[in-house]
Specification:
CATH topology: TIM Barrel
Bound molecules: iron/sulfur cluster
Number of helices: 8
Strand content: 15-25%
CATH architecture: Alpha-Beta Barrel
CATH superfamily: Aldolase class I
CATH class: Alpha Beta
Number of strands: 9
Helix content: 25-40%
Shape: globular
Largest sheet: 9 strands, mixed
């Protein structure tokens, strides 16, 4: 039986993206395939779980807190896609929707989860902000698969973000079609009037091409919850 490396399992209020404010049980998968400059996730430890033990732990929290979502987050959960497939096939969560938070790079791994995920929150990695190499092609392939789900795209914007990356993001979403919402998320540790002015300019530009463009900061950090 497959085992997964899990950094933590906890209940909280979703702080990012279109579902901000909803009650979720978070399963944080250990490890990531890239290293973003602004990453705030600590990868120091993990416990190993099999599918049954993980379902029991997540199910217990979901029941205790009436959570409507099970969030698979990381790190990058798709590094452990085989385990996730087994976990979701063996355990049907009847009252919770399955919410995947991903950096939108590992499209082949994502394709193995067909029919198992309800909502996809896909990050687009802007090279100028994240400091990682461009992943436009991978993002494009990922979105082609993800658009069959309830999906939105999130872009972290920092002081270093270039307009050219925003133009490429808009073109990526237009190519994917299906009116996928775009969320700009300001880098929380650098929140300032200057950054907000910049981000609102990006929103005005993107809204000229896309039907749903929002600016949403990390609400959990503002609320002081995990
Ligand atoms: S993809 Fe997410 S978890 Fe991975 S390094 Fe970037 S911000 Fe951190």
């Amino acid at each position: 039986m497959n085992k997964a490396k899990i950094s933590e399992i906890f209940f909280s209020v979703q702080g990012e993206g279109l579902y901000a404010g909803s009650a979720q049980v978070f399963i944080r998968f250990f490890g990531c395939n890239i290293r973003c400059r602004y990453c705030d996730t600590k990868f120091s430890r993990f416990d190993e779980y099999d599918a049954k033990a993980l379902a029991a732990a997540a199910g217990k929290l979901a029941q205790r807190y009436n959570a409507g979502y099970i969030s698979l987050t990381g790190g990058e959960p798709l590094l452990q896609a085989d385990f996730i497939a087994e976990f979701l096939k063996k355990n049907k969560f009847k009252k919770q929707r399955i919410y995947l938070e991903t950096n939108g790079i590992l499209y082949e791994d994502f394709s193995r989860l067909k029919g198992l995920i309800d909502i996809v929150s896909m990050d687009v990695k802007l090279p100028s902000a994240s400091g990682v190499r461009p992943y436009w092609l991978e993002h494009e392939k990922f979105l082609r698969l993800a658009r069959q789900h309830d999906v939105f795209v999130k872009a972290v914007v920092t002081g270093a973000t270039l307009f050219d990356d925003i133009k490429k993001t808009v073109s990526l979403l237009r190519k994917a079609g299906r009116n996928i919402p775009l969320v700009f998320q300001p880098e929380y540790s650098r929140l300032s009037e200057k950054l907000m002015k910049k981000i609102i300019k990006f929103q005005i530009y993107a809204a000229g091409y896309l039907p749903d463009v929002r600016v949403i900061p990390q609400m959990h950090r503002i609320m002081g919850v995990k």
